[in-house]
Every structure is written in structure tokens, then in C-alpha cells.
Amino acid sequence: MPNYASRMERVRPSAIRELLRLGDDPSITSFGGGYPDPALFPMDDLRPIFDRLLTSDHALSLQYTASNGVPLLREQIAARLTADGMPATADDVLVVSGGQQGLDLAGRLVLDPGDVVVTENPTFLGALIAFNPCEPRYAAVPVDADGMDTDVLEDVLAKHTTGARGRGDSGRVKLLYTIPDFQNPSGVTMSLERRHRLIELANRHDLLVVEDTPYRALRYEGTHQPTLKSLDTEGRVVHLGSFSKILAPGMRLGWALAAPEILAQLGLLKLAADTQCSTLNMAATSGYLAAHDIDAHIAGMCAAYRSKRDTMLETLAATFPAGVTWTRPEGGLFTWVSFSEGFDTGAFMRDHALPRARVAYVPGATFFPVDEEPRHARFSFSNSTPEQIVQGITALGQLLHEQLPG
Amino acid sequence: MPNYASRMERVRPSAIRELLRLGDDPSITSFGGGYPDPALFPMDDLRPIFDRLLTSDHALSLQYTASNGVPLLREQIAARLTADGMPATADDVLVVSGGQQGLDLAGRLVLDPGDVVVTENPTFLGALIAFNPCEPRYAAVPVDADGMDTDVLEDVLAKHTTGARGRGDSGRVKLLYTIPDFQNPSGVTMSLERRHRLIELANRHDLLVVEDTPYRALRYEGTHQPTLKSLDTEGRVVHLGSFSKILAPGMRLGWALAAPEILAQLGLLKLAADTQCSTLNMAATSGYLAAHDIDAHIAGMCAAYRSKRDTMLETLAATFPAGVTWTRPEGGLFTWVSFSEGFDTGAFMRDHALPRARVAYVPGATFFPVDEEPRHARFSFSNSTPEQIVQGITALGQLLHEQLPG
User: A275 vs B126: CB contact, 8 Å cut-off?
Assistant: First the structure.
């Protein structure tokens, strides 16, 4: 074996792959993956766009293009960001291969081994997977119904500023990662007051804030909140967005908006990482945005997802035992279900939910960056039919009544 | 400004971006970019494939899929690798976003700051861009008509095994990067004897070998050589390939073939980097491989590129002054032109070629990882018409006759 074997320690297998595989078994009702509903993909609108691009007049759709993304698409994204309270031009936007690449590039830009990343507790597993190769440590700040608890955040930042450092451990907090809207996995949204407070603390402690907003456009009720980027007073927020949940994930397109000096560096890391995104997919997405009203399309998706959410919340209320609680997400794809102390959602899924009810979800332990709590689970309502939601949740409820002391 | 400003030093702007921009000016005859000829993209074959995929029956073409790539495409790639002397199954293949992502992942897998990467001298700028964020040092081994000089390689490796180390400088050679077939930028191909020798030295010095083969299928004459991977006795070669030059770069698809324990780690880094490649583009490429004879398509491309190569070589011979030399590539997209000591191809392009002849190429200095030699240039013949080649080379030849002592 070559001499880099030990170096491989920086990459560890993860539970997400095994879970993704479960989604492939059609006999399982899966509330696991954070997948959008493919029935909502605008296939009939996209087909003629690809058709037109794949003619000899448009052969450049399959050629190399600008590393930071085709100009018209960047312009269209900038217009959408501007409408969302973040004035931007095409030059402020970097097209990335889904939000995941934005996380990877931002992590690589600032993190050295031992640096501290602050996240919500729990947080998106994919972000941990993106940051882990940089070998950071994590400080996890609890969320409640108003999102990340900024009082705890203040304490955590104060502690890391003054505390002792171990060997090979910078202990320096460099990056704060947050999903302010319909957070993954908890489903909660950060209040306006906390958004202001977070920016204040980021300024005081000189942090790079990575704001991840894949679900932002999928609001089903309540008040739209301004993005952290729109409240950013010192150019320290990297705002990430994605077409995965509002158009289709299979084209792998998202965007980063950041201050010019940060965006330029992210762009160079993008060039190093994979040269550019798919020209064809960028051209098609641009064509879709030019020819269709994506906000009307999103409104249709919201109606469908809201109904699925309501079905799931109602069925949970009707069939789950007392003592089990869950969040009421105002948007997005997930609710976060919490059981009493001592309950292990992983063991329950392995021993009961999967073999007896043929139902899957994501055991919550994997979303905790530091201390894994086994008593939670993430339930996604996006990629199941209402019938599957009623049947699956009801079946789980019956098993839970059996297993939990009444 | 946030406190990571100094960290940004790891990413530096590069000449390639400026050069890519030149390609956008239609009044310039550019021999610069390593772009395939878009007239050779099989648009008419791809259009019905995308058409079929973009129907509601195939909505999963736009959904998330397996991080390592859609299974059928991996199987088809494995069959092609097997036919090329590298017995493989779908499980041995990782689909990546073009060869560039393979370079990025391989570098991140093994490199720590100060580690040494051995490359050909000159070498592919994109590889340096991919490795640079890992902050390696480079040792560059000259190429001649038979590719990387393995006698010099042996000396370089011996020196790095025994030499003193500076501070913060592991001095350890971990990775050997090579483009054995129709090398970028020199156009030369590594002889069979040197391939065997390289593997022997990699074994002795415990190196990871990254074999980059984007041009491999584009052979116009001479003897097909076995890949380094096919000669790999200890599972230390990562073989990278790409659909960019044989199908189209705008879909951003390539592959990595490696020993199982290495491939698994590359797969986890891929998951961290961008989750997966475009499902749609993978499905379309798979559909293309199933429905069409890509080898026949490649044979057609080879005929077209061979003719362009011949036109360029003949025009160089007819119009360039004595004392200028160039390689005769048996395949690929480039010839490497060398001028006499003291000549600066960058200055000549800026002062004469661009303003007076409206012709661009890539000044060679940028391809040297250590000591930049200004007296070379890379000329690509792939993305120009025969008329443009004759006109552009002839115009350059006239200017050179003016500028060079006769």
C-alpha cells in the first residue's frame, strides 16, 4: 500500500450513503431522503428548452464556458437575489454545483485543521461531510422554535475567545454555518431578532458566516424573513442558494453570493475543483428562467408540499403516542420528531419500523456534530404521496404505542 | 475584513482565466484553449436522448442519484476500460465532474502542505491549479519525444528521499502526476519502456501515480500504448479519463479508476465536494453509449483532428523561420513550439501576435511548475478551421521573420 494510507483518515464513511440506498427499495415507504417530489419537476417546460439547445446552432451549449458560470444565468440569479433584498449584479454571483459545492469551497477557503466551525445543533449532515476533510472541530448551538439560540451562541463565542488551546488545535472560531429558513433537520426558522443578533456577534468575533438557503423559497405560511446576507453590514456572509429544490437537483446548480474579494477566491477554488458547472444545464436553466415564471412554478410546489406537510402533521397528531413531539415547519421539507429520554430512533428503525412497517426515516443522531442524541428523527414529507404519509405514519404510530410505556 | 484574509493566499489568480477570455473575442484567431471542435459534438444523436429523458416517465433523470454515479454509466465506462487493458467492473469506477475533479480529489486525498508533487516539465496548468490549494511543492521532470525522462525522475526521487528538509516542508514525494498520451502541453507520448520504468520507480518510492488521459482516444498515427494503470502492479495508479474530448466538455463528466480502498476514499471526497454529478448528463451519456457506437464517432473525430494537425504542422514548416522547432503529436490537440533562447512568447503575443495578426496561443511559461521558460508556446489545432490555421500560422510566421534574426 502507498504511504498515504494514514492520510485517508481524514475521510470517513458516513451513514448518509447507507440511508440513501434505502430509498432505492421500492417496497419501503421512506421519509428519509431530503428529496423533492419528481412529479413536480417541470419536465414539459424543460424538454423544448433542451431540444433547442441541442441543435447545431447552439453547439456551444456543450462547449466549455466561463468558470464562474454563463453570464446570462448569473444575471438572472442576481435579479432574483435583488428581489429578495440582496442587491446584486451578475459579477456578484458564482454558479456552483449545488449548495454542497458552495459549502465545500467556503470551508476550504478559511479552515485549517483544528479551527472551530459553529453550527446549529442539530445541523445538516452534508455540511459536516463538506467541512470534515478540512479537519475542523465543531461547536454546536442548540435551536428552538426561533432557530439558533443566539444567547448560547454568544457564550460559545466568548468561551472560544478566552479558553485554553490544546496542541494542534487553533481553537479559533472562523466559520459560522447556519440554515436560517426551515432548517435541516429541525424545520425551524430563525427569528428576525436573532438574525440581527447573529450578524452583530459575527462582526464582533470576526467570523465568516455561511448562510445556506436551499429551502428558502418553499414557505407555506408565516412571515418571510430577510436573509442574513441582506442584514450583513461588513461583507462577511456567504449566501448559498440552490436550484435543487425549486427546479431539479439532477442538474446540480446553485449559487454563491459574497463580497467581491471573497467571491473571487471562491471562484478560483471552483476553477481548481472542477473548472465549471455543466454548460448545458446552465444554459437550460437560464432558458427556463427566461421563458417561464419560476415563481408561479414555486407557488405550485408550495401548495403541493404544504398539503403533504399538513397530512404528515395531522397524522402524527392522530396516531403518535403522547409524549412524542415534533416541530411545525413553516416551509421546507422536514419535521423533527423528538421522543422521550432513553428512546433510540436508530434501534427502533432497525428493529421495528423497517422490518415490521417497511417505513424509513433518518435517525437523528447523525445530525449532531458533537454529542449525538439518539432520541430524535427527521421525517421528510416531500417525496411521498399523501396516502403513503397516512399509511406510513399510522403504521409507525401503532408500533410506537406497542413499544412506548403508555 | 474577516480574519481569514491571510488564508486566501492559498488561492492565487491565474493566467488561464485571462486566456480563456480571449477565446470570447470572435475577431481573434485563437490557438489557445484546449477546446474540442463543437462542430464534432453529436448534437443530433444527443437531442432525442435528452428528449426521451425529459418526459414524466423519466423524471428520475432530474432527481438525486448515487454519489458515485449512475450504475449503468459506471458499467459502460468499466467495459470501455476493460477493452483498453484495464479489467474493471462498475464498482471500480467513480464518475467525476470532468478530469479536473479527479485531480482535485486525488490531490486532497494525499497532499499536506510542503509535500512534493512530481510532474512533467512542462505540465497541464489545470493540474497545478487543482493541487495548489493543498500547498505542495513541485519537482518537474523534463519531457522529450518519449515523454517524461525516467532517468531524471529516478534522480529526482533519490534526491528527495535523501535530501535535507526545510522548516514546514515535508519534502516527501507523495504524488506523481503524468499525462502519458499526447501530453498537455507538449503533445508527446510516453514510450512503453518508460511506462514500465515509471511504475517500477513509483513502487520503489511508494508514490501515488495520477495518470490523466483526456486525449488518449484521439490517436492519429503510431502505436497505441498500454496505460500506466494496466501496468500497475501494486494498485497505486489512479487512472483518470474524461468524456470532454470524445463527447462534449459541457456535460462535465469523467471517471476515476483506482484500487478499491483508494476509490472508496475518492468517492467520499466526491460526496463532500458536490454530492454527485448531474443525473441528467450521466443518464444522457449512458443513453448515448447504449444507442451509438462511440468508437465510430471517435474515429470520425480523429480523421478531422488529424487533418487539422497536418495542416498546422505543414503550415508551421512552410512559414516559420529556421531555428523554431515543434513537436509532432501522434494524437491529442496540441503541438509545442520552441523558440531560441531569449525569445519571450508572452511578450511576442502581447506586442505582435495579438495586435498585428489577431492571433492567440498560450505562452508556455505558465506550464512550468518551477522555473518558467518563456521561449515556448502551446498551439492547439482542434478548434480552428483549416483556413484559420493556414491564415493564422502564416501571419505569425511573417511576424516572426520580421522579429527573429535570420
Answer: yes
